[in-house]
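Propose amino acids for all 153 sites.
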C-alpha cells in the first residue's frame, strides 16, 4: 500500500535519486533542502512504499494560488496510479488552504504528464514560448480551479 506523507529531511536522498532519473535539468539536493527548511510558502509530499520513497510532488502557496513546482515517480513505480495519488493530495491541500486553484507548466512534448493532469481536471490555459532553456521547448500552462471562474475576484 502506498502512503502519502509530508516530505522531511530523511526523504531527501531518495527524492534526489528520483529527481535525477526523471528530469533533464534536475533540482539539486540543496534546492530541496532550501524548499524544506527555508521556503515557508513551499509544501512537499512523498509517496512511500513502506519506508521507500517512490514519488514526490510539491507546490508553492502564492497569495491565493498554488503553483506546482514538481512531481515525479520512480521509474519502476510508474503507471500504477502513484502520480494521481500525489496530485490528488496536492489538490486536497490546496482546498484545505482555500486556494482558488492550482497551476503548473509542463513541456509541450511531455504527453504522459499532460495526460495525468487532464485526468485530475487540469485544463490548458496558455503557452509560454521557449520556456525551457535547454531545448527552447514551449511550456503548456495548465490550471485547475476549485471555485467557479466567474466567482474569482
Ligand atoms: C508524469 C508522472 C509523474 C506520472 O506518474 P505515474 O505514477 O506514472 O502516473 P499514474 O500511474 O498515476 O497515471 C496517471 C495518468 O497519467 C497517464 N499516463 C501514465 N503513464 C502513461 C503512459 N506511459 N503513457 C500515456 N499516459 C500515461 C494516464 O492518463 C494515467 O491515467 P490512467 O491510468 O487513468 O489512464 C511520471 O511519468 C514521471 O515521474 N515522469 C517523469 C517526471 C515528469 O515528467 N514529471 C512531470 C513534470 S511537469
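Proposal:
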Amino acid at each position: 500500500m502506498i502512503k502519502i506523507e509530508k516530505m522531511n529531511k530523511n526523504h531527501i536522498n531518495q527524492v534526489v535519486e528520483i529527481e535525477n532519473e526523471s528530469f533533464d535539468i534536475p533540482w539539486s539536493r540543496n534546492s530541496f533542502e532550501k524548499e524544506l527548511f527555508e521556503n515557508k510558502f513551499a509544501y512537499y509530499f512523498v509517496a512511500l512504499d513502506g519506508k521507500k520513497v517512490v514519488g514526490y510532488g510539491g507546490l508553492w502557496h502564492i497569495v491565493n494560488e498554488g503553483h506546482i513546482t514538481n512531481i515525479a515517480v520512480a521509474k519502476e513505480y510508474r503507471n500504477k496510479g502513484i502520480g494521481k495519488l500525489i496530485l490528488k493530495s496536492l489538490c486536497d491541500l490546496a482546498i484545505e488552504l482555500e486556494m482558488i486553484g492550482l497551476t503548473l507548466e509542463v513541456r509541450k512534448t511531455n504527453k504522459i504528464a499532460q495526460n495525468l493532469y487532464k485526468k485530475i481536471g487540469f485544463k490548458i490555459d496558455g503557452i509560454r514560448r521557449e520556456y525551457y532553456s535547454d531545448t527552447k521547448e514551449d511550456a503548456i500552462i495548465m490550471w485547475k480551479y476549485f471555485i467557479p471562474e466567474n466567482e474569482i475576484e
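The CA atoms of residues 9 and 121 lie 31 Å apart. The mean pLDDT is 96.
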